[in-house]
Write a structure and sequence with these properties.
By secondary structure, the protein is of the alpha/beta class. It is 38% helix and 17% strand. It is built from 14 helices and 17 strands. The strands form five sheets. Strands 4-10-9-8-7-5-6 form a seven-stranded mixed β-sheet, with helices on both faces. A four-stranded antiparallel β-sheet has the order 13-14-17-16, with helices on one face. Helix 3 crosses helix 10 and helix 12 packs across helix 14. The structure holds 4'-deoxy-4'-aminopyridoxal-5'-phosphate (PMP). The site of 4'-deoxy-4'-aminopyridoxal-5'-phosphate has 14 residues, from helix 4. 4'-deoxy-4'-aminopyridoxal-5'-phosphate (PMP) binds next to helix 4.
Length: 403
């Protein structure tokens, strides 16, 4: 892979921060966007801005075609069996909220949902909100010291009150790649549907929803080199058809009177209101980028960076890495001694290195490790060994100051 050529496609990588070259290692939060995606957004605003699915006029038809082409593009990207199973949302968070609110409307007092200790708040809070109508119990899957799921304990959590299992494909803190296919098979053997939070998997790993056999899969464009404001919910058609709408409004209806409304067919039943059609259409270009570079090449490059930097980090006195799973993506969360993650993050920023600090929207996991937060460096296709080295020397310099 020609990293320099790839880097040239990302204008933001050429900028400076505090007079230093930007070293962007916050890709788990959001990744940067190549020029072809940005150009497409500008082109669409200048050339094809018209509301989708509403007009007979030419522009509206063009905009609709672009959106529906992207839907088919996403379908093939994750190997869904039909485009009707692809629902556009604002992001992973909205996708999970959709499932919790709509599918979850059937849950009753005493029903149980299985989550893991490593979930992002986006895969915890929407399920808790169901408690407004039913007394839902949340059962939690534990992890071992490497940050890997305890599969036997997971298996033991199922009982006749279990109504859902929801877990991340890849942890945004530990980097752990969960055995989602096996976990789904276990849930299905108990007749329990599965939602996979794929926010951290879709930028790095080939997703095949039919192979995983999950019932729902959620992810966000902005973590996949794409525009903000776009997410995807994949849902198994049979379940989506049974589910009530999530929001009401335009686009999601067949016929409305003051007495009664009939709803549109899939996927539009779940897409009330004007979608972010420009960003949806431009998301196609991000998928083009990923497919042109190749997910296998992206994964191999990031794995190489992970293998390169991990021992160098471990060699820093007092540094502890959280998450050393055998199957791990290039996300490294750590603390150094009793130095506050925020202090270290601030100094790294002064040196041009963008890392994330804090609880990473995973407070139960922070509680598990007994820390208020962690520093997290996460890598993408455009990161280099030189940047990994720069992170190490920036940490060393910061520690000199802090100690
Ligand atoms: N789940 C995981 C595992 C994540 O890492 C994130 C983003 N940090 C989300 C869900 C939420 O994604 P979004 O903010 O794009 O909705």
């Amino acid at each position: 892979m020609q990293i320099e050529k790839i880097r040239e496609e990302f204008p933001i990588l050429a900028r400076e921060v505090h007079g230093k070259p930007l070293i962007y290692l916050d890709n788990t939060a959001t990744s940067q966007t190549p020029r072809e995606v940005v150009d497409e957004i500008v082109r669409l605003y200048e050339h094809t801005k018209a509301n989708v699915h509403r007009g007979v006029h030419r522009l509206s038809q063009e905009a609709t075609d672009l959106q529906e082409t992207t839907r088919r593009r996403v379908q093939s990207f994750i190997n869904a069996s039909s485009p009707e199973e692809i629902i556009f949302t604002r992001g992973t968070t909205e996708a999970i909220n959709l499932v919790a609110a709509s599918f979850g409307s059937r849950f009753r007092d005493g029903d149980e949902i299985i989550l893991t200790i490593m979930e992002h708040h986006a895969n915890i809070v929407p399920w808790q909100l169901l408690r407004r109508h039913a007394d839902i119990k949340i059962r939690v899957v534990e992890i071992n010291e490497n940050g890997e799921i305890n599969i036997e304990q997971y298996r033991s959590l199922f009982n006749d009150r279990t109504v859902m299992a929801a877990f991340c494909h890849v942890s945004n803190v530990l980097g752990t790649i969960n055995p989602v296919k096996e976990m789904t098979a276990i849930a299905h053997s108990h007749g329990v549907p599965v939602l996979v939070d794929g926010a951290q998997a879709s930028p790095h790993i080939k997703i095949d929803v039919q192979d995983i056999d999950c019932d729902f899969y959620a992810f966000s464009s902005h973590k996949m080199y794409g525009p903000t404001g776009v997410g995807v919910l994949y849902g198994r058609r049979r379940l989506l058809e049974e589910m009530p709408p999530y929001q009401g409004g335009g686009e999601m209806i067949k016929h409305v009177t003051f007495e009664h409304t009939t709803f549109a067919d899939l996927p539009f039943k779940f897409e009330a209101g004007t979608p972010d059609f420009i960003d949806i259409a431009a998301f196609s270009k991000a998928l083009d980028f990923i497919e042109r570079v190749g997910l296998e090449a992206i994964e191999a490059h990031e794995e190489e960076l992970l293998q390169y930097i991990t021992p160098k980090l471990e060699a820093i006195e007092g540094l502890r890495i959280y998450g050393t799973a055998h199957d791990k993506s290039a996300v490294i969360s750590f603390n150094v001694g009793d130095i506050h993650n925020y202090d270290l993050g601030m100094l790294l920023d002064q040196l041009g290195v963008a890392v994330r600090t804090g609880h990473h929207c995973a407070q139960p996991l922070m509680a598990h490790f007994g820390v208020p937060g962690m520093v997290r460096a996460s890598f993408a296709v455009y990161n280099t060994r030189e940047e990994a080295d720069a992170l190490i020397s920036a940490i060393n310099r910061s520690l000199q100051i802090l100690r």
